[in-house]
Amino acid sequence: MSQRISWIAVIAALSIPAAVAQTGSNAVGLREAIRNGSTSFRVRYRLEHVDQGGFDEQALASTALGRWSWNSAEDNALSFGLEADYILVAGIEDFNSTTNGKTRFPVVADPEGGDLNQAFLKYVGEGVTVTAGRQRINLGNQRFVGGVAFRQNEQTYDGLRVQLSRGSALLDYTYVNNVNRIFGPGDGLQPGDWFGDSHFLRGSMQPAPGQEIAAFAYLLDLSNDNGPPNSNATYGASYRGAFDVVAVDATYAKQSDWADNPMTYDASHFSVQGAFQVGRGTLTAGYDVLGSDDGRTAFRTPTATLHRYQGWTDKFLIAPPDGVRDAWFSVSGNIGGARLTGVYHDFSADAGSMSYGSELGFDLTYTLPNRVGLEFKIARYDTDGFATDTTKAWFIVSYGL
User: Fold this and answer.
1) Nearest to residue 192, comparing CAs of 94, 135, 115?
2) pTM to 2 decimals?
3) CB-based contact 367:373 (threshold 8 Å)
4) Residue 346's beta-bridge partner residues?
């Protein structure tokens, strides 16, 4: 388990058995809520291979995720849930998990161990939802706040979340005092937790069917380990719209230092993409920029689902000081019962004219009728002076019930 669990998660976890211990009609209702609760279990096996320049050894990681989830039925608008993960090495451990000390291998950030993934109390009323405790939070397209579900140990948040809705308008605010990172449950080359006092605020509305306009403010105050350099204040707006044959997604944001960040900087982010239906396939083209403050430091998104952006080889999890521009396109379509996607990225600096290189990736997914999912994924990054040539490949089998 995590070396430190925030007070919000503790209160939520302890409140569940305390509530059950009540006497009278309330206790009867809670017992019924527990009796009528739902349980699910998920298993995901992954074999990941990394061939990275600068390492004599290639990484091969055989890991498995077991996830147990339980949610109570609702009692007087109240419900609660628990979720636990365990990640184990299933045979081959020729990789640097960030905690196992095998630094002669490239990093595959799937540390072994168990963690309390969620423990929350939830109230759902007319136009209001309040969730307290450890919880999963994915905001918008997860460009700034997400769960990094691709990795075996998902990122979750300890906090208090309030969602207010009226018609198509939604106001979503969360206070977070702990980020449970993918590198946990313990600390290694990276801290397993980021403690602090952070605020996520997002407001959205739908002016027409299939259209969404949103504004947001994300204030990250991260106090321990490498948290301060990642503390920032981000303000921005986004638009998402679906039309007959095209879907558009655009975001603009400004970022500056916040809290105890030792740097003083201002940087911007801009992204736009369009997805076009071509026959039975989809062609998507996009341009994503993490801007630079004159080459001193760049726009950062430390709580994002980063694997979804700027290439699957994860060469730009932290943007270099000159920033990064990513011009990309993808083609996807169905082949029989499988889904095939091909993606190409061209990377360059935001400050200056340096080319960083390119990446080509392919992803093939197939779901069997018995709830078994299969996936094969491969990506190759070719450097043009930044970082090193890297090839990553994954074979994934998942099952849920």
Assistant:
1) 115
2) 0.91
3) yes
4) 327, 358
